[in-house]
Amino acid sequence: MPGSIYGRLMREIQNLFANLPASLPKELVQPLLQTPDFRIERIVSHGHASPEGFWYDQHTDEWVLLVNGAARLQFEGEEPVEMKAGSFVNISAHQKHRIDWTDPNQPTIWLAIYSTLSDEE
Amino acid sequence: MPGSIYGRLMREIQNLFANLPASLPKELVQPLLQTPDFRIERIVSHGHASPEGFWYDQHTDEWVLLVNGAARLQFEGEEPVEMKAGSFVNISAHQKHRIDWTDPNQPTIWLAIYSTLSDEE
């Protein structure tokens, strides 16, 4: 699924575990669906983590599900929390967070859903 | 997670595989998140299928991911197609479809995302 599938035949069945790159120098972010109201992305990590001291500070809410693998998610001012297959969390806009760790021994596959509406609009 | 988690602490990490009922007389549908723009649901099937001749005819688009288990999805006028862990598909509003079969030997867990905007509004 290189790039976006938006615009492809609607009823085509695809698989979230397909087309995993053999090597992953950087985290892979792929849009799966873009609507006027929300965006769905597949994110693949393989040992990637946020740099020390880096915090995501997003303008939209993010609902994220760890579909495969393992990770530690950290909210600002808190200890990192474990995420495993099936773990999900809703991250409000401007809730600062970082990925403390992802499993170096297997791909960690996330499904992320972002509100399209931004507080900047 | 009985019922909706909407309104619970935003940064609480939950698990899609938790709180599976021991027996499931009917398909289980649980809202996970409701926003003005979209709704996320967990659906658990265990051998459940649509009655012969029944077709879903929805007023909103549905993006659905099979997270665990196995199923066959049928679009009107087509043969059923297999879905397994990781399979996902976008079902446009009014694209008639039914669940032909779900695995009787394990729970089939779906994640469904519905546009809030309906063509009836």
Q: What global shape of chain A is seen?
A: globular
Would you report the number of β strands of chain A?
A: 9
Q: Which regions of chain A have little confidence, pLDDT < 50, spanning 5+ residues?
A: 1-8
Order of helices and strands of chain A: EEEEEEEEE
Chain oligomer state: homodimer
Number of helices in the DSSP assignment of chain A: 0
Tell me about the largest β-sheet of chain A. 5 strands, antiparallel
Alpha-beta content class of chain A: mainly beta
**Average pLDDT number of chain A:** 90
Report the largest inter-chain contact. A-B, 39 and 39 residues
User: Span between N and C termini of chain A?
Assistant: 31 Å
Explain the overall architecture.
The structure is a homodimer of 121-residue chains. By secondary structure, chain A is mainly β. Chain A is 0% helix and 44% strand. Chain A has strands at 14-15, 28-34, 38-45, 62-68, 70-75, 81-84, 87-91, 97-102, 108-115. In chain A, the strands form two sheets. In chain A, strands 2-3-9-4-7 form a five-stranded antiparallel beta sheet, with no helix packed on it. The first copy, chain A, is globular, with a radius of gyration of 15 Å. The relative contact order of chain A is 0.27. Residues 1-8 of chain A have low confidence and may be disordered. Chain A binds chain B through residues 10-18, 32-33, 35-38, 40, 61, 63, 65, 67, 73, 75, 81, 83-92, 95, 111, 113, 115-117, and chain B through 10-18, 32-33, 35-38, 40, 61, 63, 65, 67, 73, 75, 81, 83-92, 95, 111, 113, 115-117.
